[in-house]
Amino acid sequence: MTLLAPAIRPCTGALLAALAMPSLALADGTVSGVLFEQGAGTPVDGVTITVDGHGARTSTDRDGAFQLSLPAGSWTLRLSGAQSGEATGVVVADAQTTELLFTLANGSVQGVQMEAPPSAVPVGPAPEAADAVLTGQVLDDTGAPITGARVFVRGSTVEAQTDVEGRFSVPAAAGTHTLSVLHARYATQTVHDVAVSVNGTTPVEVRLVPAGLELEAFTVLAPAIDGGTATLLAERQDTSDVVDTVSAEEMSRRGDSSAASALKRVTGLTVIGGKYIYVRGMGERYSATLLNGSSLPSPEPTRRVVPLDLFPTAMLDSVVVQKTFSASMPADFGGGVLQLRTRGIPDELVARVGMSMTHTEGTTGEQGLFGPQYDGDFWGGAFGTGGAAARALPGDFAQQTASTPLVIKSALPGAQGFSTEEMESLSRALPNRWGLSPTQVPYDLGWNASLGNG
User: Where in the chain is the domain with CATH 2.60.40.10?
Assistant: First the structure.
C-alpha cells in the first residue's frame, strides 16, 4: 500500500492510469475502510461518509470501520462530522473490494492508503516497453538486508519483492526513473533520478530507517506513602545536597526501637553510648539536630548533642542526615545536621506496645553500689509515695525558700536572699543520707506505647 495525502495515489502504475480515466460502467463493488488517529493509532468512530454523485451514506463503527456498495467506476468519498476531508479517485471494480485506510489528525484527513483489485484497472495506453533490468539491494541503517520489501518503479505496473539477501530485480524501460520502496517496519524511501541503461543492468542500493512509533501519552498514578522508601529516594534524587535517609518503612522492617539504633547503619555516622550521634567523626559541637525543621536543644546542660534514644521509631516518619550546607538549614553545624520528622495524624486507629532489654558486658549481673531504694523508684517516681516522701525537702526549708531566692544576700539596698549564717542553718536542715549498699546490677529494661486515631 502507498501513503496518499489526501488525494489517493495507488501503488501500481495501472491504478495511476485508472485515476486518469473516466468512470467505468461496471457492476456493483464494495468499498471498505478504516479510520484511525495519526500517532496514537486509535480507531475513530461516528464519522459520516458520503459519496459525491451517489446516495450511498454510512458511518464508522466503534472499530473505525465502514463499508459501502458502489457501482464500478471512480468515486470521491467525503468525511463529515467530528472529522472532515475527502478521498478522490476511489476505484471500484465489478464484484471486487477496494480497501481504504484513512489517517486523521486535528479533525482532518492527513493521508489515505488504497489497495484496489487488479480488475479495477481500466484499459489504457500500453506502458513503455521494458528493454532493461533494474536491480539493487535494500538494507537497513546497520547494513543488514531487509526481506519482503516491496519495490515499485513509477509509471510501471510491475512490482518486485526483496529476497532473503534484500535483493530485487525489476524490468524497466531505459531512461531515468523514480523508485519507491515500502516495508511495514520501515519508513518509505523514494529514490529519484535512477538511471537505467539500454539492455543493461543498473544496480542501486536503498537504505531504510526504522519507522517511528508514536504512542498515546499515558499517566501512572500512585499514592504517596509518608515515610516510604520510594518517597525518600525521590527526595534524594531531587536535591543537590549530600544526604542520607532512613524511612519509617526501613526502621520497621529492621526492628529499630529508637532513632539512635536506626542511624547506626548510615554511612559517616558514629553512635556514642548508644544514643549520641556524631557526623563524619566530628565532635558534638559540629552537629545539630532539628525536629520538624525547628532546632532541638539538648536536655543535658553540659552537652550540645541531643540523645536520640529519646525518640522511639513509632513516632518518626523519617530521619534525614544532611552533610553539606544549604540555605534552608541553620548555619550552626560543621559536620552535619540530623532532621527528625514525626508522623502525621493517622488515618485510622493505631496502637503499638514495645519492650526493650539491654545487657551491658561487665556490668549487668555484677555487684554494684546503689544508694537508698524507695517504693516507686522503678517507675521513675511516677508511682508510689515512699521515694517522694523520703526525698522531699524539710518543711522549714521549703517554707523559708518559697518566697525568698536561695542565694547569699548582697550588701546592696533592697537585695533579697539569706545571710551566711542563715544559709548554713538551711543546709544543716537537709537530710544527710550518703550511704551506699552493694546490689546486683539488673538488666536495663524499657517499655514504650503509642496510641493515635485520626
Answer: 3-120
What does pTM read for this prediction?
0.36
Residue pLDDT, tens place only, 260-295: 888 887 877 888 887 888 887 777 777 888 888 888
pLDDT, tens digit, for every residue of 27-83? 578 888 888 887 766 788 888 999 988 888 899 988 788 998 888 888 888 888 877
131-167 exposure pattern, b = at least 16 Cβ within 10 A, e = fewer: ebebbbbbbbeeeeebeebbbbbeebebebebeeebe
Residue with cell 526492628: 255
What CATH number was assigned to the domain covering residues 229-344? 2.170.130.10
Delimit the CATH 2.60.40.1120 region(s) of the chain.
132-208
What CA–CA distance (Å, rounded) separates 276 from 286? 13
pLDDT at 123 over 70: no
**Percent of the chain predicted with pLDDT > 70:** 84
Distance CA 399, CA 369 (A): 34
Q: What CATH number was assigned to the domain covering residues 132-208?
A: 2.60.40.1120
Residue keyed to cell 541553620? 330
